[in-house]
Amino acid sequence: MESQNRNLILATVLSVVVLIGWTYFFPPTKPAEDSTAATEQTTPAAPAASDAVATTTTAAIEAAPTPANAPRIAIDTPDLTGSISLMGGRLDDLSLKKYQVSLDKSSPLVRLLSPAGAEVANGSNPYYVLYGWSPAGGLDPAALPGPKTVWTAPAGSVLTPKTPVTMTWDNGAGLKFSRTVSVDENYLFTIRQSVENTTGAPVRMAPYGIIARHGIPAASHVYVLHEGAVRMTDGKLQETKYSAITKLDAVSGEGQADILKGTQTGWIGFTDKYWMTTLVPANGDFTSVVKYTAGSDIYQAEIREPTVEVAPGATVTTDTRLFAGAKEWEVIKAYQDKAGIQRFVDSIDWGWFFFLTKPMFWLLHWLHGAIGNMGWAIIALTLIIKALVFPLARKSYISMAKMKELQPEMEKLKEATGGDRTKMQQGIMELYKKNKVNPAAGCLPILLQIPIFFSLYKVIYVTIELYHASWIGWIHDLSAPDPTSILNLFGLLPFATPEPNSMFFMFSLGVLPILLGISMWFQQKLNPAPTDPSQAMIFAWMPWVFMFMLGSFASGLVLYWIANNTITFVQQYIIMSMHGARPDLFGNIRQSFKRKAKAKGGTSK
Prior knowledge:
Elements: H1 2-25, E1 48-49, E2 54-55, E3 72-76, E4 80-85, E5 90-100, E6 109-113, E7 127-136, E8 158-159, E9 165-170, E10 175-183, E11 188-197, E12 203-214, E13 228-233, E14 236-241, H2 242-245, E15 250-251, E16 255-262, E17 266-271, E18 275-280, E19 286-293, E20 298-304, E21 308-310, E22 315-326, H3 329-337, H4 354-371, H5 374-388, H6 390-405, H7 407-417, H8 421-434, H9 443-462, H10 511-524, H11 533-550, H12 555-578, H13 585-599
Parallel strand pairs: 3-8
Antiparallel strand pairs: 1-2, 3-4, 4-5, 5-6, 7-12, 9-10, 10-11, 11-22, 12-20, 12-21, 13-14, 13-17, 15-16, 16-19, 17-18, 18-22, 19-20
Helix pairs in contact: 1-11, 4-5, 4-9, 5-12, 6-9, 6-12, 7-8, 10-11, 10-12
Keywords: Cell membrane, Chaperone, Membrane, Protein transport, Transmembrane, Transmembrane helix, Transport
Subcellular location: Cell inner membrane; Cell membrane
Domain Membrane insertase YidC/Oxa/ALB C-terminal: 374-576
């Protein structure tokens, strides 16, 4: 009895650890939103330039927030809408036409970039892109355009894929600047900066680009998904979470920064679960910087290009690109393959098992295109994966069938040895050896399948195709939890249920989570309950514990688990039946109810 109590306590503690660990590493998925609190309104430092590569050695240039009445250039493309402020020439107003904050048709579009200082309709933190020139060789910073500079553009200018816009500024002292912005049909901007020197002496300066983000975006920050800075430098990928950015070492003249020089190709920016903003320098020497300004809580991603000399009467031009939009795999891959942005698909977080997640993602993308419905594509992908790992599953189920055949002999052995555990273990090992049964044979195939199923989980979690994608009936958003709730009898009772961000939401079980628990319960009943009461209790609770754990997850993930459990149930039943160990499903169910009735002191016939 003392041993059983110890096992019960240990099993209970382990279950709690699993529950807490799962909730920590895989927190509930919430519908994507862009609502964050306002923060201090300052503009990040404009880099200064040395004679080689741009560095930030000057003090910060502070600027007033962008006035609401500052002149602007409208942006209108098939996928984007917004504007560019002529004050500072910054891109600080951008929304995604294909994506809304919620399923409500009147809900606002997902807003990617927001201006500093101006009131934003959905309360987004300031998030914007700056371009400019840093002074070098003793050039007066006042001779260059800054964050307060008001550029000039032709009246009625609208940035579209067919109509680039050009902004100009003359410093009145012999330097004339122009900035031409163009955009394609999707999310790629090209920024061409030019400076004409009409003075009688050469001038030196260096072009730069900055993505500035005030505060951390409100989102479900999940361990398995990277959110923060991401950059590629000469083929090497580096990811830095927001929490790690705030812990960067201080660099002289920079603040907290991580500076990395490249000689070939690269890109740098900030990535969220579904959205991304990335600077792409021209091929050649460049410096990328991840930076944090603690006083104003600003996160920065910068590209600094080498200093150039502009001779008297000459004009120097430099091109950079900017990706600002949704992380649509097909679009990003086209930029990698056709626009030459090296390894751009790696801006999507593929995880540790990238060699598995990448082909799985491609297959899910193909199935979605072929079937036309993401829910059925998830089920089809699960079927294909289960078919591929079927040989491993078959070995596991055959091993389970052989173990079941030996169950009567093991019961006899248990009675013969009484309570002597040592003799019983020795007898069981001899029984295995005599019948050529390897008890570990069923474990190894399962272990080999773990990275496969974890990769499938990752693919379903990160793919943007689930965002507001419907399946059947009541499931209108596979990226959000099941909207139905047992608390109001799935909509039959006229009262609201807890919101997804409420601590009581886990009790608001929908149809899919309940089906998940039932599928796990049926799968469990293919085998008799363990003879040990403690183990039997833990196994009895596991389906319902997982039902609550996964109930607040995205519907697409819950659908995957239901499909996986159902296919596993069918495979196990058929294979064990073929090897003479047909599961007594209903007998095991009856036995479990008898055991519960006996535990309560009742009787059963």
